[in-house]
Automatic annotation (TrEMBL):
Domain of life: Bacteria
Residues of the AMP-dependent synthetase/ligase domain: 17-384
Organism: Streptomyces prasinosporus
Pfam families: AMP-binding (PF00501)
Name of the protein: AMP-binding protein
InterPro entries hit by this protein: AMP-binding_CS (IPR020845), AMP-dep_synth/lig_dom (IPR000873), ANL_N_sf (IPR042099), ATP-dep_AMP-bd_enzyme (IPR050237)
């Protein structure tokens, strides 16, 4: 789209912190954890110090033999050094491939095999407890961010390596490979270029620009997700102090925010859901937040209302964007205190003029409506260029400039896009499982998760999780489901037992499979 193309020279991840430090050298980067690859650096650094660390890590990768155009898989224990290692890899012209710490060993091996003999950055804990021995045969060389292993080279042993000049790759060259959520099977490897990433920057950059430069921006996003590589550049290049959270535990977060109150927070929907308890926290950790932002899964209106309630700023707003790893942000909308809890959670907003486009394709020749939704297709210059090793799968979703999202919905006469369900999650006789879940959240405050999946007979089966795992109030449930489509009796699970992706989405197909197996064994 034309506004994404003007002056688009590519994201240039390798020199990102150099450029940010040149503008705002003393701006702080605040962490809630130590970096495995450089624990001596502490939890508070300036942008100048972070830029130096990225340069240092790049020199170690070069000393280990990594060269421009080669691929470096990063799969290690969770931490912000995953993101910094990606920037360091890009700094020497190589291509970082980021794999979530949550992936199991077999899946990691399959994805490393697909990357075709890459360098692998991992750690001793992953090798000792999670990755099978065959990983050494799949990688050209194994490097350890922490710990030691007889068959691997440690980053510590490469300390003091001669610094090397940054390598600038063409903007259309691959600059980063991330993976999809894997909610429907083995994740796909999404290939981003410098130009596609820069195209994603513009729709999201407008939100951060609304916050004063002196105000911190807090980010709790998966370190391997493409969103981190737009949220982070926007924050540091615009001059905001940056808070990076690995832990979303409300107690930890409340203390961090008490010491450095953020003006904007970017986080996963389920993270905001977990932070609902902070509304009544006496430290008022969310009081200074002017903007809440989420660009992942659908978020429930109840959560939006509570976040806005916790802010003491004048006219705070919750910004929800609809998008996907493969295309970036596509549509957006805002909530305010006046339009929060009672707002239609299925409305995900409108596309960004001059930057993104949306169409809904009929499945039966009739106009898509709520009762007869169509396929959501989008277009954006932020679209990935392929799935690594699976280009035919990419081609199945691409139709010229348009991209099939795998979602079902419709557009109102005003152009607002309504998301009803994923194609694979559609249940016969139910307009929208997501809409039912929104309603249940609003009616039962004790719920911290509710997922509706089909049971073995195809009926809607609610799986519920309650705060502190308290038994579900069946009387309250009976009252809450009044007027909703008929459903099977609810099944209660602990939240931690639900299968989740790297961005805390619930793997609905996997959950349905587990429930079926559980009932079969009973």
């Amino acid at each position: 789209m034309f506004l994404q193309r003007i002056g688009n020279k590519g994201i240039r991840l390798g020199t990102l912190f150099d450029r940010a430090a040149a503008r705002h050298p003393a701006n702080p980067v605040i962490l809630d954890h130590d970096l495995d690859v450089a624990p001596e650096r502490g939890r508070r650094m300036t942008l100048t110090e972070v830029a130096d660390l990225v340069d240092d890590l790049a020199s170690r990768l070069w000393a280990a033999g990594v060269r421009p155009g080669e691929r470096v898989v990063v799969h290690k224990t969770d931490g912000f050094d995953i993101t910094l290692l990606a920037c360091s890899t890009a700094r020497i012209g190589a291509v970082p491939v980021l794999l979530s710490p949550k992936l199991d060993g077999a899946t990691v091996c399959e994805l490393v095999r697909r990357v075709d003999r890459p360098y692998l950055v991992t750690d001793q804990d992953k090798l000792d407890h999670h990755l099978p021995a065959e990983i050494f045969g799949l990688a050209r060389r194994v490097l350890l961010a922490s710990g030691s292993h007889d068959e691997a080279v440690t980053f510590a042993s490469l300390a003091g390596s001669a610094r090397v000049a940054p390598v600038t790759m063409p903007p259309d060259h691959p600059t980063l490979v991330t993976h999809t959520s894997g909610t429907t099977g083995t994740p796909k490897l999404a290939v981003h270029t410098g130009r596609t990433f820069q195209a994603r920057y513009r729709p999201q950059g407008t939100v951060a620009s609304l916050v004063g430069r002196s105000e911190p921006v807090a980010i709790h996003v998966s370190f391997v997700h493409s969103r981190m590589f737009t949220a982070m550049p926007i924050t540091i290049l615009q001059g905001h102090p940056m808070i990076i959270l690995r832990d979303d535990d409300p107690e930890v977060v409340a203390e961090v925010f008490r010491q450095a109150p953020p003006g904007l927070i970017e986080a996963h929907p389920n993270t905001f859901l977990r932070w609902e308890v902070l509304v009544d926290d006496p430290r008022r950790p969310l009081a200074n937040v002017k903007y809440f932002s989420s660009t992942f899964d659908a978020i429930h209106p109840r959560t939006v209302h509570l976040m806005l309630k916790a802010s003491r700023r004048e006219s705070p707003q919750f910004v929800q964007m609809y998008g996907q790893s493969e295309v970036g942000p596509i549509a957006g909308r805002t909530y305010s205190k006046k339009r929060g809890a009672d707002a239609d959670g299925r409305c995900v907003g409108s596309p960004f003029p001059g930057m993104t486009g949306v169409r809904v394709v009929s499945r039966d020749g009739k106009r898509p409506t709520k009762s007869n939704p169509g396929y959501i297709e989008v277009r954006s210059d932020g679209r990935i260029v392929t799935y690594l090793g699976e280009h035919e799968r990419w081609e199945k979703q691409a139709d010229g400039e348009w991209w099939r999202m795998g979602d079902l919905g419709y557009r109102t006469k005003w152009g607002c896009l309504h998301l009803l369900d994923r194609e694979v999650d559609e249940i016969e006789g139910v307009d929208s499982t997501l809409e039912i879940e929104d309603t249940l959240f609003a009616r039962i405050p004790e719920l911290v998760e509710v997922i509706i999946v089909p049971d073995e007979d195809g009926r809607p089966l609610p799986v519920v999780c309650t705060r502190d795992d308290k038994p579900l109030d069946l009387a309250a449930w009976k009252s809450a489901v009044a007027g909703l489509p008929a459903m099977a009796e609810p099944v209660q699970w602990k939240l931690d037992d639900l299968p989740q992706t790297a961005t805390t989405k619930i793997k609905r197909l996997e959950l349905a499979r587990l429930l079926k197996a559980e009932r079969t064994d009973a």
